[in-house]
Amino acid sequence: MEIVKTFESLDSEIMCVHRTVDTGEVFFHCHDGYEALLLLDGTVNYYIEQTGHRLEHGSLVCVKPYDFHRREVISKDRAYDRITINISMDKMKHLSTDKTDLSECFHKNDGVFMLDREEVSKFVRISGKMMQCMLMSSYGDDVMAENYMREILVIINKSSQGEKTIEMPNIMPTQISEIIAHIHWHISEKITVEMLAEEFHYSPAHISRLFKKITGLTISQYITQKKIMLAKKYLEEGNPPSEVCYLVGFGNYSHFSRTFMKNVGISPQKYQKGS
After folding, report:
1. Phi, psi of 60 (to 5 degrees)
2. Angle of CA points 124, 82, 111, to nearest 5°
3. Which end of the chain is more exposed for a tag (fewer CB within 10 A), N or C?
4. Cβ(90)–Cβ(149) under 8 Å?
5. Dihedral sign (CA 250, 253, 255, 259)
6. Cβ–Cβ contacts within 10 Å for residue 29, how many?
């Protein structure tokens, strides 16, 4: 099976980028931190695990750590103009307080919201200041960058509260949504395309073709990557590699170790020692 890179580690604790070009087709992937994307121009289908939404100007999408996501640019004749921010899990805790959990918005409404004109303008202005600070190395620039990030997160969280939330239709095909949910709940078991086809009464060829069209991955690639992500979590928590093998649904340790090595580049033991 072809090895695909679906995991991207954050390069720094906070990141902010304004892009106006399409970086090409992407498949389902995840990060070890939080990601928020504000769409300024263009039309995009955005998929996060078993949900999908059509994004327009002012749409804001919040992705939790390790959630697989993918965007599909619909408006090929217009700029894909967006601002993306990334925050590590440790930095999110640092920016939050006992009274204010700034990660709340990532756990609401499928993580998708609409900002009004004033909020979009404020988001753009503050993110611009943050990017300037991140490019500088003068006294206090790092502190100011953190303050701007905190301010942006407050804007997002306030937008996610109460009457301001808008219910957006889920454009993820029902078959794929159900399959991803099933994989999520049975990730510690053996799962094959044939088993999924039998469970949902579709032909293996049909669900494989539709799954690849939506996610950019084969079903087997997605299952393997989900298992590897979970294995990393268990290893980081101190579970013995020989037990992690079975916790994530591999039939024997040799197969688990070989698959982990192919996808991560090091053995489970070395990964655990370095985490």
Report:
1. -125, 130
2. 90
3. N
4. no
5. positive
6. 17
Question: What is the C-alpha to C-alpha distance for residues 109 and 168, in angstroms, rounded to an integer?
Answer: 9
CA angle (90, 223, 255) in 5-degree steps: 100
Kindly report the pTM of this predicted structure.
0.88
Residue 142 near residue 133 (C-beta atoms within 8 A):
yes
Scanning the structure block, which residue is given the tokens 């049975």? Answer: 186
Extents of the domains making up the chain:
7-164, 174-274
Q: What would the CATH number be for the domain defined by 7-164?
A: 2.60.120.280
pLDDT of residue 166: 64
Q: Which residues pair with 67 in a beta bridge?
A: none
Q: How many CB atoms lie within 10 A of CB 166?
A: 10
Report d(CA 254, CA 202) in Å as an integer: 32
What is the Rg, in whole angstroms, of the alpha carbon atoms belonging to the chain?
20
Average pLDDT over residues 66-92: 90
Q: Return the structure tokens found at 163.
A: 């009457």
Q: What is the pLDDT of residue 162?
A: 64
Number of C-beta neighbours around residue 90 at 10 A: 10
- Write the CATH number of the domain with boundaries 174-274: 1.10.10.60
Can you say how many angstroms the Cα of residue 185 is from the centroid of all Cα atoms in its chain?
A: 18
Q: Specify the range with the lowest mean pLDDT, choosing from 78-87, 142-151, 154-163.
A: 154-163
Closest CA to 84 of 136, 155, 153, 15: 15
Same fold across 7-164 and 174-274: no
Instruction: Using the structure block, give the residue that is written with the tokens 């301010």.
Output: 151
